[in-house]
TrEMBL record:
Protein's name according to its UniProt entry: aspartate ammonia-lyase
Record-annotated Fumarate lyase N-terminal domain positions: 15-343
GO molecular function: aspartate ammonia-lyase activity
EC number(s) on file: 4.3.1.1
Catalysed reaction, written as an equation: L-aspartate = fumarate + NH4(+)
Residues annotated as domain Fumarase C C-terminal: 409-460
Domain of life: Bacteria
Keywords, in A-Z order: Lyase
Keyword Lyase assigned: yes
Length: 460
């Protein structure tokens, strides 16, 4: 390498290129930086960390089967562990929107780890660690980057999103129990319906979140399939004998998760099934969160001119013009996050359509959008819990007033009076703006039996 004040010369199959002198990355990374000035977006820490895990695990496997010397393998592992820890995050510089399959991102990792490992060994020519020959030994972008998506997604689900979802489920269950004594009017089509307990309403929210959690947990199994050792198209070309089980075993040791070889390497290489299934379950969660947060906004609407059956914690002023106004800010934030996740599902599904023959080259955008979806939900849900759900209070008197004014109470009279007569009573109550019980009283129809039927407690 020829050095200057700011740059050094490097050479690859396309010729000479200038690389920042202090950079640990090399020529292929620099070409990607030059070619893809697109969004300014970079892959998240979780993916870079997993790239380090894969490279360290591969080096250990090759040491065990005699393909790397202890000295060189140890240096690669040491450099990879620095990547795992985040020491070299500033050296991962390629835009998310890059050449297909993630080749540039894989080479970014290979070059950083190779140059750092060479530095650890003393940077002599005989100690030089080559990014392709040594760090990428028995690997292809097509198996390592694909595996990195699955590993990073599984780790983020297990350690971040699923605990957050479980906590939301528990908090909604707690609120359901707290609010179970409170009777209120149910609503269908946004109009009066038969009574319900406020706690029952919240128990429905909790069970919905439980169902989403269980679906995500089921989808974890397909994420645990990683096709390391399949090489470029699943044929294991240039993969060292005995490498695959050893590299997967070490990844399991490092992540404490049950990763395994796929039943068919060609199917794994051709399709990013795990990403599709995962993002679909995230979309389902987002849809239900929108429904729940929208319900909470309706139930808390007012405080004087809406339903006002519950009160949300006040977290910040809601208007630059109306003094004292407080809006459901946390619910609005959650709704926006869910809109983004639903949009990301469309991006991943569209990318899935682009799979052709032996590979889907759209893996970079799949990786970014999947991991971003998990991160957004993992951050939004704890905020939703701590700054909103945990502090929700019931307005019991308002619930009672709305319930007693509900025309749907007439439903309880149908078995006794018949549908037609009950309908007439309900219509008269609506036209005269009177409670059902008052209309019955004025008609001389209010018997003890009917009065018991109109008791909301008998309807829930």
């Amino acid at each position: 390498m020829n050095s200057s004040n700011q740059y050094r010369e490097e050479y690859d199959t396309l010729g000479k290129i200038m690389v920042p002198k202090e950079a640990y990355y090399g020529s292929q990374t620099q070409r990607a930086v030059d070619n893809f000035q697109i969004s300014g977006l970079r892959f998240p820490r979780s993916l870079i960390r997993v790239q380090g895990i894969i490279k360290a695990s591969a080096a250990l496997a090759h040491m065990e089967i005699g393909k790397l010397s202890p000295e060189m393998g140890g240096a690669i592992i040491a450099a990879s562990e620095e990547v795992i820890e985040g020491k070299w995050d500033d050296q991962f510089v390629i835009d998310v929107y890059q050449a297909g399959a993630g080749t540039s991102q894989n080479m970014n990792a290979n070059e950083v780890i190779a140059n750092r490992a060479s530095e650890i060994l003393g940077r002599s020519q005989e100690n030089r660690v080559h990014p392709n020959d040594h760090v990428n030994m028995s690997q292809s972008t097509n198996d390592t980057f694909h595996a990195a998506i699955n590993i990073a997604a599984a780790e983020n689900l297990v350690h971040k999103l699923l605990p957050a979802i479980s906590q939301l489920e528990l908090e909604l269950d707690r609120k359901a129990e707290e609010f179970m004594p409170i009777l209120k009017s149910g609503r269908t089509h946004l109009h009066d319906a038969v009574p319900i307990r406020l706690g029952q309403e919240f128990s429905g929210f909790a069970d919905t979140i439980k169902s989403c959690r269980q679906q995500i947990e089921r989808n974890l199994d397909v994420l645990y399939e990683i096709g390391l050792g399949g090489s470029a198209i699943g044929t294991k070309m240039n993969t060292a004998s005995g490498y695959t089980p050893k590299v997967i075993k070490e990844i399991c040791n490092r992540t404490k998760l049950p990763f395994r070889e796929p039943s068919n390497l060609f199917g794994f290489t051709q399709n990013t099934n795990a990403a599709f299934r995962t993002v679909l379950s995230l979309k389902e969660l987002a849809i239900h969160l929108i429904k729940i947060t929208s319900d909470l906004r309706l139930l808390s609407s007012g405080p004087r001119t809406g339903l006002a059956e519950i009160t949300l914690p006040s977290v910040q002023p809601g208007s630059t013009i109306m003094p004292g106004k407080v809006n459901p800010a946390i619910l609005e934030m959650t709704h926006m996050v869910c809109c983004q996740v639903i949009g990301y599902e469309t991006a991943i599904s569209t990318a899935g359509i682009a799979g052709q023959l032996e590979i889907n080259v759209m893996m970079p955008v799949i990786a970014h959008t999947l991991l971003q979806s998990i991160d957004l939900l993992s951050n939004a849900i704890p905020t939703l819990i701590t700054k909103c759900v945990s502090g929700i209070q019931a307005n019991e008197e308002i619930c009672k007033n709305w319930m007693e004014a509900s025309l749907a109470l007439v439903t309880a009279l149908s078995p006794k009076l018949g549908y037609d007569l009950a309908s007439q009573i309900g219509k008269q109550a609506d036209e005269e703006n009177k409670p059902i019980k008052q209309v019955l009283l004025e008609k001389g129809m209010l018997t003890e039996e009917l009065e018991k039927l109109l008791d909301p407690r008998s309807m829930v």
